[in-house]
């Protein structure tokens, strides 16, 4: 976590909007994806994966070409080709002007970015069903919103564990890593610049969400959870947190991991930007 003092400001100034450029994201998933981070001169370098599966984020620094040259040497030292992930369209164009590439579009990695005011206000016909879900929830339950604080943190952790039990997949490697990441990040939320909230019904925490800035325009929603018995709770926590984040232009709700149900849910909120990402092998 001490690395955040050195690297988080560089990531915040990178100019990228993808969730991979959030220090909190890198930290939260570091064990699952074997994330490594380093600074070489004026360049910030990030790798993920091990052995033949190693790949790198586009370098952050004054010159994309010089940064890629550093990464090429790092890859060659391991006897590996240079593979880049999390490459957005603007960076892809720049790379194609500098290097021969083999490019693969990564559909499951595309990020969904929404205007914060759209999620906070749910305006017009496009969001009619979302407003209905919240109205139905409000008729059925007497609910309260709270910011996540030291006073309710233990309840958030308990709800996260309950959510996993409901899904019947507590042993799933990815969900286990997420649950550990939730605990770590929220326990040190001030250091990460995390902001989050919860929905409480009859004293019980039934939904929560939190995130942190990617840059001064885009806020990344790292996690959003709601208990199955409380239909409409996802729509409610989404709206309530967005209402408290209007100092950011966009909310990045990250990718859909290729899961069809998650893809439908994210598209139903009418993203303003589908941030396409590519995997590139630099030849």
Brief overview:
By secondary structure, the protein is of the alpha+beta class.
Write the layout of secondary structure elements.
Elements: H1 3-12, H2 23-28, H3 30-33, E1 36-40, E2 43-48, E3 55-56, H4 64-77, E4 82-88, H5 89-98, E5 101-105, E6 111-115, H6 116-121, H7 128-140, E7 143-147, H8 153-167, H9 173-187, H10 189-192, E8 195-201, E9 204-213, E10 218-226, H11 233-243, E11 250-252, H12 260-267, E12 273-275, E13 277-282
Parallel strand pairs: 10-11
Antiparallel strand pairs: 1-2, 2-3, 4-13, 5-13, 6-11, 6-12, 7-8, 8-9, 9-10
Helix pairs in contact: 8-9
Descriptive overview:
With 283 residues, the chain is of the alpha+beta class. The protein has two domains: 108 residues, Aminopeptidase, CATH 3.40.630.30; 162 residues, Aminopeptidase. 41% of the residues lie in helices and 26% in strands. It is built from twelve helices and 13 strands. It has a seven-stranded mixed beta sheet. The chain has a three-stranded antiparallel beta sheet with strand order 1-2-3. The longest helix has 15 residues. The chain is globular, with a radius of gyration of 20 Å. The two termini are 35 Å apart. The model has no long low-confidence stretch (mean pLDDT 96).
């Amino acid at each position: 976590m001490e690395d955040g003092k050195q690297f988080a400001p560089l990531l915040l100034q990178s100019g990228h909007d993808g969730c991979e450029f959030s220090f909190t994201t890198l930290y939260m998933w570091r064990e699952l994806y074997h994330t490594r981070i380093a600074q070489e001169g004026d360049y910030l370098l990030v790798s993920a994966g091990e052995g033949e599966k190693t790949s790198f984020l586009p370098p952050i620094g004054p010159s994309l070409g010089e940064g890629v040259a550093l990464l090429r040497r790092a890859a060659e030292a391991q006897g590996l080709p240079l593979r880049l992930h999390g490459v957005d369209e603007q960076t892809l164009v720049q790379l194609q002007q500098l290097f021969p590439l083999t490019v693969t579009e990564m559909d499951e990695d595309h990020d969904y970015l929404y205007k914060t005011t759209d999620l906070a206000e749910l305006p017009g016909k496009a969001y009619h069903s979302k407003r209905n879900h919240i109205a139905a929830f409000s008729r059925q339950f007497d609910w309260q919103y709270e910011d996540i604080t030291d006073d309710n943190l233990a309840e958030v952790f308990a709800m996260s564990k309950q959510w996993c039990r409901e899904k019947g997949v507590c042993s799933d490697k990815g969900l286990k890593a997420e649950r550990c990441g939730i605990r770590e990040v929220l326990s040190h939320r001030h250091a990460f610049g995390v902001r989050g909230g919860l929905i409480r019904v009859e004293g019980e925490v039934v939904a929560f969400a939190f995130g942190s800035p990617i840059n001064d325009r885009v806020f990344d929603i790292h996690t959003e959870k709601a208990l199955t018995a409380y239909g409409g709770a996802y729509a409610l926590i989404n709206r309530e947190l967005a209402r408290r984040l209007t100092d950011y232009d966009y909310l990045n709700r990250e990718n859909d991991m290729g899961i069809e149900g998650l893809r439908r849910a994210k598209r139903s909120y009418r993203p303003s930007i589908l941030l396409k990402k590519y995997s590139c092998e630099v030849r």
